[in-house]
Amino acid sequence: MRETFEWAEGWSRSSDNFVDDIQENVTLPDCPVLEQEVVNTPFFGKIWYRRRFFIPAEWKKRAMQVEIDAAMQTTRVFLNGVYQFTRFGGYQRFVIPLNENILYDAENVLTLEVDNTPQPDCPPGKPWRNLDFCYYSGLYRSARLTVTEAIHISDPLAVSLTAGGGIFIRTLEAGPERALLSLRLHAVHEVDLECRWCLAELGKREFPCSLQVVVTAPDGTEVGCFGSETVNLRMNTDHTFELELPVDRPELWDVDRPALYRVECTLWAGTQAVDRRTVRYGIRTLAFQRDGFRLNGRKIELRGTNRHQEFPYVGNAAPATMQRRDAWLIKQAHYNFVRLSHYNQHPAFLDACDELGLLVIAPIPGWQYFSLNGSFVERALRDCRELIRTERNRPSVMLWEVSLNEAYPPGWLNGEFHRTAHREYPGDQCFTCGDVYGWFDDWDVLFFRPGLETDKPVLMREYGDWGFGGNNSTSRQSRGGGRTALLQQAWNFQWTYNQLRAMPGVIGGATWVMFDYNRGYHHQLEQSGDTDFFRVPKYKYHFYRSQGAGEPMVFIADDWLPREGEDKVVVFSNCDEVELLVNGRTLARRRPDNGADSPYNPERNSPGWETALLDEVDESGGVPFDGGNCHHLPHPPFTFAGIVHEPGVLRAVGYRRGEPVAEMTVRTPGPAVALECRVRTDGVEWQADGDLIFVDVCSVDADGTVVPGRSDRVTLRIDGDAVMVGSPVRSLEAGITTFLVRGRPAALTACPAE
After folding, report:
1. Mean pLDDT within 263-275
2. How confident is the model at residue 449 (pLDDT cuts 50, 70, 90)?
3. Section 633-644 average pLDDT
């Protein structure tokens, strides 16, 4: 049977070559160079990794491979000092077969030369100084050794089969009474090099093989057991089993109830079970139409965001727990889809999307670069094939973005991307999308462009940032910018979201961006995120929370610091009414804003919609929270005008059908008296071994209220088996700063930096 050995530990790393030199023991995921918080000049160069391992003699007739989940971004592979091949591409899993050049009953050495230098013949391909994100370095995801019997279920990335290899499940039909699934499973009889020279004789033997499939419902109940006919498999041959799996009264996967089935596939050779794989699968149907998107026949507005996978200091080398926390934060903000900008992302993040009910736009790597050289084109098409073969069983993936983002290659290549996707995923449940500025409009779903005329559904892939001033966008606000700056950011997105929902044929859109991140071409962080780089929310995050129809919520977008004269207080809520009180006294109780829609700035043209083809950008700031531009919002904000500050407690109470259902208070802070540590797990329990966690250090007054005016330099003392990652001294921003900690400390103590 199949055996899988996780290879997170046991690696050594050096920066010279693969001979024995100065080495450091590392655990995956590995970041060979800790970067600064703001990356102006990232590390580029070669890093050498070694893994020593023992192969017992009894494995000689078995098939073995090493799976590398990602390495940035050109990897030369050596086994026992012998060069094997070079992998081009830094975002996709790849496999290293071990049956040749392996030593049995002895120690072996796998060596990887990993080079993150940008390659013009490998997507994304663009030099980092012109790139809108960073190429980080190293073996930044997981690795494992897989050992199978000679007869086994193939890996879809180890064979070259269109719409094949491994296990491929599709939903043919799904209704309340019955669903019908299609299952393809590719079995191979792999032989070692010695046997290949004897196939004329050995290949005469036939091995009767069959497939058994057990389907288990989300509650653990077995709902179906299916078997195939027996086929005879000779050495060095293969067979694709094809079954249809009916499921009675299915639980359909939905954004509100992401039901996941288990499909267990057992491959038999005669009376012996030789391989077993289990796939989690969500039964659902998708339909993209001009009047909206439908999931299982139910019309759903697509409200989404974009995500880069980087984290402070470690870049892309964050463990699975951190990936899952990002997905949880996105779901908590009441987004229902995420665009993975602009490359394959961590499998743990997509696992969490499957589990949470978060739809996904899955792209191939690419950003504002295209080359007609044959190597680049072939690798881009390979990326397209491998993306679909890797993620095709995920219920969360709704769109395949098989285009080079903002690169606009010739139409024939876009056409081949589109056709390749449909060849790899046949049937009516494959939907492609991509840039249309190259004037290729055959995608199944088009991204918006000014002046677009089409009868196809249109999606806004990015909105809210560039159109408000380009690199000086008023949407780019730091968390420490204060109340006025954060309201400005939230207003830009509210204004655009309101406009977007009124546009005929536009079925949804994605904000740019969810988390602040580093840009290769700019000396500052991109700060249009719902959160800062350390995942601390800004007001914008709570605006989108309020647009969901789930649990009632209110959020006061105010720090309630002293200010002169009359001002406004903005409350985000999904309630019918909100009452505003100060020190227990009611100031007003009102229904949501209901003012007229108007231009962003009446004295100028309104901002453009996309990140290209803009004649003019608007960095004026407009007229934030004027009580209007909300008629098309699911839940307009509540703008309370003419409020005079009074030190004390500001309280907002949300009502539904006249009953109080949610509340929030904001307190005018007093003098800072302490530094308080707050650990954020963001929906995923803290794992002791190798986990990374954010620890907020807050300057607080005697009541525990954060004092936002503080900008002191502080440090964090860690007791126990844990270490700090990145800068040991940080400055408070709006009274809060965040440290990155690896492991589980016994105690945390914050103190002023000396």
Report:
1. 97
2. confident
3. 98
Q: How confident is the model at residue 613 (pLDDT cuts 50, 70, 90)?
A: very low
Looking at the DSSP bridge assignments, the partners of residue 726 are: none
Rounded to two decimals, the pTM is 0.97
Could you tell me the two tokens for 675? 């530094």
Point out which residues pair with 640 in neighbouring strands: 569
Joined together, the tokens standing for residue 150 give 């000679």
Residue 510 and residue 339 in contact, taking contact as beta carbons nearer than 8 Å: yes
CA nearest neighbour of 339 among 409, 397, 261: 397
Beta-carbon contacts of residue 274 (< 8 Å; ≥ 6 apart): 1, 148, 149, 151, 152, 267, 268
What pLDDT was estimated at residue 608? 65
AA letter at 742: R
In angstroms, the Cα distances linking 567 to 310, 484, 560, 642 are 38, 11, 11, 5
**Using CA of residue 638, residue 640, residue 641, residue 645, what is the dihedral sign?**
negative
With residue 59 as reference, give the H or E element that holds it: none
CA within 13 Å, CB half, 485: 12
Residues 6+ apart with CB under 8 A from 677: 695, 696, 697, 698, 716, 748, 749, 750
Residue 531 in this model has a pLDDT that exceeds 60: yes
SS3 468: helix
Asked whether 122 and 367 are in contact (CB, 8 A), the reply is no
Task: Pull the structure tokens for residue 72.
Answer: 């940035």
For 602-638, give the secondary structure using H, E and C. CCCCCCCCCCCCCCCCCCCCCCCCCCCCCCCCCCCCE
The DSSP call for residue 497 is H
285 is written with which tokens?
Answer: 């149907």
Which residues on adjacent β-strands are paired with residue 211?
A: 267
Q: How far out from the chain centre does Cα 473 lie?
A: 24
- Confidence at residue 549, expressed as pLDDT on a 0 to 100 scale: 87
Confidence of residue 612 (pLDDT cuts 50, 70, 90): very low
C-alpha to C-alpha distance for 171 and 359, rounded to whole angstroms:
16
Provide Rg for the chain, Cα atoms: 28
φ, ψ for residue 233, nearest 5 deg: -115, 120
pLDDT in tens, 553-580: 999 999 999 999 999 999 999 999 999 9
Dihedral sign, Cα of residue 24, residue 26, residue 31, residue 34: negative
Instruction: Report the Cα–Cα distance between both ends of the chain, in Å, rounded.
Output: 59
Residues 6+ apart with CB under 8 A from 623: 598, 601, 602
Q: What is the rounded CA–CA span in Å between residue 63 and residue 173?
A: 37
